[in-house]
Amino acid sequence: MIRCRFFILIFSLLSSLSLAAEIYRSTDQYGNTVFSDKAPKNSTPVELPPINTTPATELSNKPPRRATSTSVSHSNQITIQNPANGAIIPNGLIPTDVRITTKETVDPSQRIVFELDGHTLASSTSTQYTIPRLSRGPHRISASLLDQNGKTISKDSIDIMVYQPGS
Fold first, then answer.
1. Helices H, strands E: what count in the chain?
2. Rounded to whole angstroms, how far apart are CA atoms 66 and 79?
3. Is the entire prediction scored with pTM above 0.70?
4. In degrees, to the nearest 5, what angle opens at C-alpha 9 toward C-alphas 7 and 10?
5. Under 8 Å between Cβ of 73 and 147
6. What residues contact 95, with CB distance under 8 A and at least 6 apart?
7. What is the 3-state secondary structure (H, E, C) of the chain?
8. Cα separation values, 154 from 15, 89, 94, 102, Å
9. Which of 25, 28, 57, 161 has the fewest CB atoms within 10 Å, i.e. the most exposed one?
10. Which helix (H) or strand (E) holds 19?
11. What contacts 164, CB < 8 A, 6 or more positions away?
12. Which of 139, 137, 103, 136 shows the shortest CA–CA distance to 119?
């Protein structure tokens, strides 16, 4: 076990040294530009721009919490079935379907409002909405059931994490 840790330490030190190596540009006998980490005759060091990096998304160690369904009226309750609370969406560039269920049939005078991070996406009688694209990072999806006067009958929310290809 100690040997393994020692080997990993030595390997990481050696690999970090190679990352800091100088890069040289020269021209070969055929006039082609050659780049190398060894300095041949008549070579010049290359100034490389800084590496383009994207900062990592900060994650909390807390388990995702399910925002419980709140019911203003005891007549009907809404629940988000898909995606699941705490879901990790591996590719936010493809559409994400949000599906809800209700205990009772949605009355034609009632509306279902879908929200993403507090911004309204849609208001309809449909129990499904497709989010065309999600940006990288944590998001909260909410669905509310409203009566004909716009008063909230029931609401449910979930938290998800979205990744992008290559992140």
1. 1, 12
2. 11
3. no
4. 65
5. yes
6. 130, 131, 132, 133
7. CHHHHHHHHHHHHHHHHHHCCCCEEEECCCCCEEEECCCCCCCEECCCCCCCCCCCCCCCCCCCCCEEEEECCCCCCEEEEECCCCCEECCCCCCEEEEEEECCCCCCCCEEEEEECCEEEEEECCCEEEECCCCCEEEEEEEEEECCCCCEEEEEEEEEEECCCCC
8. 56, 26, 29, 9
9. 28
10. helix 2-19
11. 91, 92, 93, 136
12. 139
Amino acid letter, 134: L
Task: Identify residue 99 by its one-letter amino acid code.
Answer: R
pLDDT tens string 52-100: 666 666 666 666 655 544 444 446 888 999 999 999 888 888 899 999 9
Tokens read off for 64: 């995702």
Closest by CA position to 41, among listed 54, 21, 23, 26: 26
Which tokens in the block code for residue 76?
Answer: 């009907």
